[in-house]
Specification:
Layout (H helix, E strand, L loop, with lengths): L2 H30 L4 H63 L7 H27 L8 E5 H10 L4 E6 L3 E5 H17 L6 E9 L2 E8 L33 H11 L3 E7 L3 E9 L1
Parallel strand pairs: 2-4
Antiparallel strand pairs: 1-3, 4-5, 5-7, 6-7
Helix pairs in contact: 1-2, 2-3, 3-6, 4-5, 5-6
């Protein structure tokens, strides 16, 4: 969000505040036509005072939201630049040293370049996935599916200690999209788990739909970071260190897909104790 856009939004807020005050004033004038003069003046005064307090509150909340969005935009730009710069610098340096004859083109150095190119490809794929998940009219190919079966099949593709609990729950979902949600949540759980990498998954059948729970005993997420973990590129420097890889897009994609299904995704976590993600899907 640019500064000009923020100024424009601030002006719009001011116009809204003026309109609200005028409405309250109009209410006072209407009272004037049907009430005693003193009562009318009291009503008008109370209307103006109430309107002023209310509009100041709205203005403060709106500006606070604008500042938060601006901070997130700056962080997104910084993180994206970092994600692109690191592999490009590594590949460029390696190739330059080998071309100049300073380094020998050993299999290890070529593998390092290949790994960095793979990292760039993964970032591009994540960005494409995010773009698709953010489409206003995301096309969902819903079919009646057994969520417990989808969870079991998805978990099989990972070499980790994953415990699956719960009961069968048939619900109309896009099987591929929900599979992507599970892959992202399981990948996160493995990435940020301790060495034993024990993960618990559960499917709950509810009267209004179903819940999928993915829980790990990993490093956890700080309380201050929880409100922002579904934002694009957001990662806590302490608990979500870049050395673990990834671009911070997985949870943003999860949220978009679940929202497109009319559901919600929430997170609970404590540093050093692990994290628990709950996906709720309606029937």
């Amino acid at each position: 969000m640019s500064v000009n856009l923020m100024d424009k939004n601030k002006n719009n807020v001011k116009l809204l505040l003026v309109a609200i005050i005028l409405i309250f004033a109009l209410v006072g004038i209407l009272f004037y036509s049907s009430m005693m003069h003193l009562a009318c003046m009291v009503s008008l005064f109370l209307a103006l005072v109430t309107g002023g307090i209310f509009t100041r509150y709205l203005n403060g909340q709106y500006l606070k939201n604008l500042e938060q969005q601006e901070d997130l935009r700056k962080q997104l730009t910084s993180d994206l630049a970092h994600e692109l710069r690191t592999p490009l610098t590594t590949v460029g340096t390696h190739l330059e040293m080998m071309i100049d004859g300073v380094w020998e083109a050993t299999p290890q150095r070529l593998q390092s370049c290949y790994d960095e190119i793979g990292r760039l490809s993964k970032l591009v794929a994540d960005l494409e996935g995010l773009a698709k998940s953010e489409e206003k009219t995301m096309r969902l190919q819903k079919t009646r599916e057994n969520l417990l079966e989808i969870v079991r099949l998805t978990a099989k593709s990972y070499h980790a200690d994953i415990t699956i609990e719960g009961r069968s729950s048939e619900i109309a979902v896009d099987r591929d999209r929900i599979g992507q949600v599970l892959h992202n949540l399981i990948s996160n759980a493995i990435k940020y788990s301790t060495r034993d990498k024990k993960i618990r998954m559960e499917v709950q059948d509810t009267p209004r739909g179903a819940k999928i729970i993915v829980e790990d005993k990993g490093i956890g997420i700080a309380e201050a970071d929880l409100p922002f973990i579904f934002e694009r590129f957001y990662r806590s420097e302490k608990s979500r260190n870049r050395s673990t890889g990834g671009a911070g897009l997985g949870l943003a994609i999860v949220k978009d897909i679940v929202t497109a299904h009319g559901g919600t995704v929430t997170a609970e976590s404590r540093v050093g104790e692990g994290s628990k993600f709950t996906v709720t899907l309606p029937k």
